[in-house]
Design brief:
The chain has a domain at 10-66. The chain contains three helices and no strands. The chain has helices at 5-23, 38-50, 61-69. The protein is extended, with a radius of gyration of 21 Å.
């Protein structure tokens, strides 16, 4: 089935709407699963990346706060995973 440009545009717009609704969905009344989960966020991220959407951290406080909370990889500190501390040989 070949999709013409108009049908592709409609599908693209509807998919964007569904992703937006999913991002703002309440937890499921039956299973109490909250959305979005990691899989759903991956779909959203890929959709945004595929469409050339980027964020300017200077104007987006939540993204700026997230970026500020990340560790600096320029530092010479050794980072260990929780629970993976080296055993003492003493």
């Amino acid at each position: 089935m070949d999709l013409d440009d108009q049908m592709q545009a409609k599908m693209h717009a509807r998919f964007a709407e569904l992703l937006w609704e999913m991002l703002h969905a309440e937890p499921c009344e039956h299973c109490r699963r909250s959305y979005p989960g990691a899989k759903e966020m991956t779909v959203v991220r890929q959709f945004l990346a595929d469409n050339g959407t980027t964020a300017d951290l200077r104007n987006a406080a939540p993204l700026h706060n997230l970026a500020d909370s990340l560790p600096s990889f320029d530092e010479e500190e050794k980072v260990t995973k929780p629970g993976k501390a080296k055993k003492s040989t003493a």
